[in-house]
Amino acid sequence: MPETIFSKILRGEIPCHKVYEDAHTFAFLDIFPLSAGHTLVIPRKQVARLDELDEVSAAAMGVALVRVAKAVLRVTGATAYNVLQNNGPEAHQAVFHVHFHIIPKHADGSGLGIGWKAGKLESQAGRELAARVASAIA
Length: 138
Prior knowledge:
The chain is an alpha+beta fold.
């Protein structure tokens, strides 16, 4: 996997404002935050996309996300937040090392702003797609 800024942060070559770490994960404040408390949670395993993570790292990410989100809310006083994770350049991924953003929403309006252009899932198409996805999981 190509070197990323997160590889250098994990090795201690680039300083960061670390908030959490364990054997499988590492979390630090984003240096270009959308709001106070904007934090990145990354796996120590260096893979570009979520679907490339092994199950141990993925499970550890789930635990770390909950721990860090609770702490960010407690410290910032925010009562709402977004968790954002992008996979691939078409999905706006800029650093090709899996990472989750925890982005608090504050009363001043800071935080993540998104537009959502929802479509409609037709019943038959939904049944067929769900069956194909379920089969791919098995």
